[in-house]
Amino acid sequence: MKYSTDRHDPISESQAPENLAALYKDLGDIKNDFRNKNLYDLLIPWLKRGSLLDIGCGAGHFLHLAKQKGLRITGLEPNPELIAISEKLYGRSSDILNIGIDQINRLGQRQYDNITMLDVLEHIQDDESLLRTLRGFLHAQGRLLILVPCYSHLYTTRDKKLGHYRRYGKAELIAKLTAADYTIIHYRFWNMLGYFAYGITEKLLQKDVAASLRSSGKKNWVQRFCSRSLDNWLRVVENHINFGFGLSFFCVATPRTAIPTSENPGTSKK
Questions:
Q1: Which of 138, 157, 201, 210 has the maximum number of C-beta atoms within 10 A of its C-beta?
Q2: Other CB atoms within 10 Å distance of the CB of residue 13
Q3: Packing angle between helix 80-90 and helix 61-68, nearest 10 degrees?
């Protein structure tokens, strides 16, 4: 299978964590962030009961929701500023470890029912090696949930600032997972409207996409209307229809030796 191997060099490792922390600070509480709030509503049903390892857990929003659903959680986050944001929002927790994927062997022989990497794999230079490594931390019937930004032709300065080595095509991610001994049980695109907004603003006009509509800051009536409209679109339409393209690509995989169960909540592939 042929797929894009486009790879870019992001900005320095010291700047990217600062930019990510600034983004999370602007977004604030998950209640105001209609993008991630609806995204997590889409992903949570794909988690199996039991344990969860969330790699690059950021400000801990997804971990917090998973814990509310009864999962035993562990998060890995190398950026102490993001951990500080999580502690401010959800309190101090021993569930989040201040380590990166290069220190994942500190977890020992532990295995998990679920491993998630949400907007994380694009930050990893050797993504194929990491996928193979994670195979050993997943139970035989476990699930790997991955969300990545789509389309190499949309790679912009924003990606470089956030420390992205690449944006993925569907074929590329599926091929890499298959090569790492996973079986794909579900995939779909997400955020169709975001594809156009990002492409026009970031790629064509070369301007930053403002996160103000998703933040907890004050908004005028136009911003409030846009925010509510986009929230409703994602909740009512986007989370139920796979349009076959979008700004993000979501994939659920299980170790190839496992037999996929019939408990999946998803719909057909596209």
A1: 138
A2: 8
A3: 40
Going by the DSSP 8-state scheme, the letter that residue 126 receives in this structure is T
The answer to whether residue 209 is domain-embedded is yes
Query: Which residues does 134 contact at the CB level (< 8 Å), separation at least 6?
Result: 55, 115, 144
Cα distance between residue 255 and residue 241, in whole Å: 27
CA geometry: angle 27, 148, 16, nearest 5 deg: 55
What tokens appear for 140 in the block?
A: 């035989």
CA distance 195 to 190: 9
Angle at 18 between CA 15 and CA 22, to 5 degrees: 140
pTM above the 0.85 mark?
A: yes
Determine the Cα–Cα distance for residues 52 and 55; give it in Å rounded to an integer.
Answer: 10
- CA-based diameter of the chain, in Å? 54
CATH number at residue 81: 3.40.50.150
Q: Is residue 263 part of a domain?
A: no
Per DSSP, helices labelled H in 69-219 are 80-90, 127-135, 157-161, 170-179, 192-198
Domain span at residue 196 reads 15-254
What is the reported pLDDT for 2? 45
**138 phi/psi in degrees, rounded to 5:** -110, 135
User: Phi, psi at residue 136, to the nearest 5°?
Assistant: -75, -15
Q: Domain tally for the chain? A: 1
For residues 141-174, one letter each, b for 16 or more C-beta atoms within 10 angstroms of the residue's C-beta and e for the rest, the string is ebbbbbbbbbbbebbbebbbbbbbbbbbbbebbb
